[in-house]
Design a protein that fits this description.
15 helices, globular, 15 strands, 38% helix, alpha+beta
């Protein structure tokens, strides 16, 4: 904080003269930011807006119901699976709770719900990256800056109580789940386990002082383009396969747990240097596998091995979103039957993860994995494939997808609160 900002703070609070600059910022983050960056950044609060943590079942029901009301006339919106949503926001058990905390907030104006948000602490992220950073997610809001600012204020206060002042989001609730704000690609509905929001959200978020931290990409490919795209990479695939004697196979339901451990190892090893990544825990992967076991089609998975050692894996799922929309996010009593029946009738696949361990990442193994899925995907009737998400910093993956003919059609953004970013690193405090 500049000398002028400190002097102004002392003028209003002379008893703080014995505190250090860091102590002032940590104890009074909103005041400090206003003094340093100008009061215009955070307008006066609207007295008609009330933001409260969701404590009662009535508040939680209102928090959840707001999305249905908010997106009622938006044909692109896909409701969440209700049970999973309640776990991810911390109302029921989920293994993320072993490494993090989530507190949901709801905003009302004159008794009517106008917005919602969650404050998130990810202890594993802070340990892994040596940071003191808080997160936010599960954000929905009417097109009103005062409401959005009140929600962010509530999250900042909650995180400040935990000595966390740098903010990043949206994450729902972490890097290993749904993340990012959709900023491009509003004309197509979201694919399974990808986020969606109205276009005006970016303006609300940026008006509070958030700035781009990182972008994520989604690519799309079509069956009709394969005839001239596959031959373009065939020479590379053959050369890599022969050079390293690569063997590929689908994941085996008969040894699902063993293959799951293999995927966990490859996933964590391959993403280790990707921006913002936090290794997924064994408890999280086992929990996720319990559900995914019923959603997986073996033909949409592939493991690459060299001398019997797994060096890469690709994992795809059919796009279940049309069916989730049809059952309105309710798996019970009969929704799960509609969700899981005739999975091969779904024509779009989402390639969720294509991972190669570091020592093989520059040799084209990822292309070998993807090409190996083509005949299997065609055999079960797949017509479209989304590759998501891809970090903008993962230039190797971006180049491989574009060389293979995939088209960038959606972008997602993660934001940092610029005024507090200097407080993120532990050794900076």
């Amino acid at each position: 904080m500049g000398v002028g900002g400190i002097s102004r703070l002392w003028r209003f609070c002379p008893d703080l003269t014995d505190l250090s600059t860091t102590a002032i910022v940590q104890r009074f983050p909103a005041i400090a930011d206003c003094l340093l960056f100008g009061f215009k950044q955070y307008p006066m609060a609207d007295a008609t807006i009330e933001v409260q943590p969701t404590r009662s079942w009535r508040d939680r029901r209102a928090f959840m119901k707001f999305a249905w009301d908010h997106y009622r006339n938006d044909p692109m919106w896909i409701p969440p699976l209700r049970g999973e949503f309640k776990r991810l926001v911390g109302w029921k058990y989920h293994p993320f709770q072993e490494i993090g905390e989530v507190q949901t907030f709801i905003a009302r104006r004159n008794g009517q719900v106008v917005g919602r948000i969650a404050g998130i602490v990810n202890h594993e992220h802070n340990r892994h990256h040596h940071e003191r950073r808080g997160f936010w997610g599960f954000f929905d809001c009417i097109d009103d800056k005062a409401v959005a600012h009140a929600l962010f204020d509530a999250v900042r206060s909650w995180l400040a109580e935990r000595n966390l002042h740098a903010l990043r989001g949206p994450v729902n609730p972490s890097f290993n789940y749904e993340i990012g704000l959709l900023i491009e690609g509003f004309d197509d509905p979201p694919t399974f386990m990808m986020t969606y929001n109205p276009p005006y959200y970016a303006a609300l978020i940026e008006s509070y002082g958030f700035a781009k931290a990182h972008d994520l990409f989604a690519y799309i490919g079509y069956k009709k383009d394969l005839d001239h795209q596959v031959p373009r990479v065939a020479t590379l695939v053959n050369r890599v396969t022969e050079t390293f004697n690569v063997k590929t196979r689908p994941m085996d339901r008969g040894r699902f747990q063993e293959d799951l451990e293999t995927f966990l190892h490859v996933y964590n090893a391959s993403f280790l240097h990707i921006w913002g990544f936090v290794p997924i825990t064994r408890a999280e992967i086992q929990w996720t596998a319990r559900d995914l076991k019923h959603l997986i089609i073996p033909e949409l998975t592939c493991v690459a091995e060299v001398e019997g050692k797994a060096i890469g894996a690709v994992f795809g799922l059919p796009d279940y979103n049309p069916r989730i929309k049809a059952i309105d996010g309710r798996l019970f009593p009969f929704g799960f039957l509609k969700l899981l029946s005739k999975k091969r009738n779904l024509k779009r696949v989402r390639l969720i993860s294509t991972n190669v361990i570091p020592e093989y990442q520059k040799w084209g193994i990822g292309v070998v994995l993807l090409i190996s899925l083509v005949p299997k995907g065609l055999a079960i009737g797949m017509e479209e494939a989304e590759f998501s998400w891809v970090s903008e910093a993962n230039t190797l993956a971006v180049a491989s997808l574009e060389k293979g003919g995939a088209r960038l059609y959606k972008k997602y953004r993660l934001y940092d609160l610029a005024a507090t970013e200097h407080l993120a690193k532990i050794n900076d405090q």
